[in-house]
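FOLDING PROBLEM:
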Amino acid sequence: MHAIHQAAGRAIDEHRVALAEAVVARQYSLRPELVSRYGPDGRARCLQDTEHHLANLSAAVAASSPALFVDYLEWARSVLAASDVRDEDVEGNLASLQEVLAAALTGEHAEITGRFLKEAIQCSRSPARFPPFLISGDEPLAALAGDYLRALLGYDRREATRQILDAVASGVPVADIYLHVFQPCQREVGRLWQARQVSVAQEHFGTAVTQSLMARLTPEAGPDRRIDRRVVAASVGDERHEVGLRVVTDFFEMSGYETLFLGAGTPAPDLARTVADRRPDLLLISATMVAHLPGVGALIAAVRDREECRGVTILVGGHPFDVVPDLWRQSGADGYAADAKGALVEAERLLAARSVGEQADTPS
């Protein structure tokens, strides 16, 4: 059954541009007032949004998970609502999408896609919801996180840096800064961008300051002695939200692992070659968007296809894996973790289990 879903997902993705153009043409023909409502650039933005809908729909269909597309749509609707796009127009776009795909696809592909869109359209009829504020006063270092966030949003690099360095000088462990300041602040900046309460410039500034501080703090927090384990970490495709994976990678660095952070954009064959050359114990792969899930599978398949790489343990993470708990199995990974602390714990468990298995297979 899963193979049919994968084929249906490919059928959508292979014709995504043409399908998006057909959807927008139909929507605008049915609702000519959209031209005056959203202005001369509105159609181009609608076309771009529709391509994103199709990319995420194809990935969710391939993963056999309507929940992934509904989750994506909740995010997309909140972003569109913050840009003054009406709920009725989002629903109209989805209805046109449903009609175009019903005509373009055949047999089981059309039936599967229809079920996904039916559930999504029902979801779109409720008001768009924004995620709640992510820095709770009950959390450790909440006051520091709030001060740091305000400095970032005010473009005050010096004050943001001072807040963190003073905290470390007073005895706050660097690991706690990562877990209770950097992680929640980056997520909160993303939430504020989603609600259009901060600009892209503010988001990029905050990311740059945080990455600079991480590069400064990690070497100082490293252990006195290294352990004989290696980690390679990469994000999928053009993923731009790399800070989460960098936090996880630095956590391993601070625990004594030798780490190699590749970030985003490394082609699957090159990543597989790097894993073959470096022979890491662990490969970390991150994806923050549903549309990037096929890329996760392609990366893992490329690694698994090389004989030298077959012993590596692969751990995945990112928002889609939080939405569907067993999704990591479909991707071909060995495990999943929701955050940096969990990744270290899960990696230790998997590597210990692998070590026991290798010992059991060794002839006495």
User: Anything to note?
Assistant: Strands lie at 230-235, 258-263, 282-286, 313-317, 335-336.
